[in-house]
Hints:
Layout: H1 6-28, H2 35-47, H3 49-56
Helix pairs in contact: 1-2
Amino acid sequence: MAAISKQEADAxxxxxxxxxxxxxxxxxxxxxxxxxxxxxxxxFLARHGPVVRGMLKNLxxxxxxxxxxxx
Length: 71
């Protein structure tokens, strides 16, 4: 097993925390997704957070919201 630094381990922990938050958000939306696919998707999104954030930064909510998902 390759040794990793504390900084790398902390960064990975932040990815996993973000992935867990994303999973909670998706699950609360009522979208049905396989548990494995949900894990893969949320880790992917968390690992690519800066890119995703850049894509969403100019997004403004212009549609009615039922209140189930709040920012």
